[in-house]
Amino acid sequence: xxxxxxxxxxxxxxxxxxxxxxxxxxxxxxxxxxxxxxxxxxxxxxxxxxxxxxxxxxxxxxxxxxxxxxxxxxxxxxxxxxxxxxxxxxxxxxxxxxxxxxxxxxxxxxxxxxxxxxxxxxxxxxxxxxxxxxxxxxxxxxxxxxxxxxxxxxxxxxxxxxxxxxxxxxxxxxxxxxxxxxxxxxxxxxxxxxxxxxxxxxxxxxxxxxxxxxxxxxxxxxxxxxxxxxxxxxxxxxxxxxxxxx
Length: 246
Hints:
Blueprint: E1 6-8, E2 17-22, H1 30-44, E3 53-61, E4 64-68, H2 73-83, H3 103-117, H4 124-132, H5 135-144, H6 159-177, H7 185-191, H8 196-199, H9 208-224, H10 236-239
Parallel strand pairs: 2-3
Antiparallel strand pairs: 1-2, 3-4
Helix pairs in contact: 3-5, 3-6, 4-5, 6-7, 6-9
């Protein structure tokens, strides 16, 4: 296997290493993508002996991403562009163009992610049904969830980590609806001071502020869905014109 080309991205103070490996073609199956991600991660593990590698795969052409394994193409593309200098890199940044953000897609993805985060709580029956349902059912489930009542997010899930992830997604999505692209914990904490304690994984935090942000997100989603062309998640590249890359 030849030496992989990769790039670190995201928060400069992340506990893990978030990086993307650039591949010439995206593997067809989920199993192939997972296998290649693991193999490539092992090949560079010696560079990050004390950190866990969270690997992604992406295809880059003409200075921008055209396909990704995890996440959405527009978000990963712009995150790579904006956070390149936050990390010590081994390769030049191949991302030279920004993609127009698909805000509807971000809301749809955030909705699914938040529901998934609480799928192993006392809301599991409601959430699992909603995840299989339409957007209206997902919204109804989100409106039912009271984060203050959740005692555990599952035996294998750290409560602090889940709360951090929820805060990150809510802050990032709400900011994007206001025209701001945020890609690190520090950026989100600076824009939403009420989310800082969750982003920094503080102990024994009150969840009222996070619950308020969840309610704001739901209200924004209910307004956006009235104008959505597609209310189910889709691939960015299937619904957007790359000619608008800038």
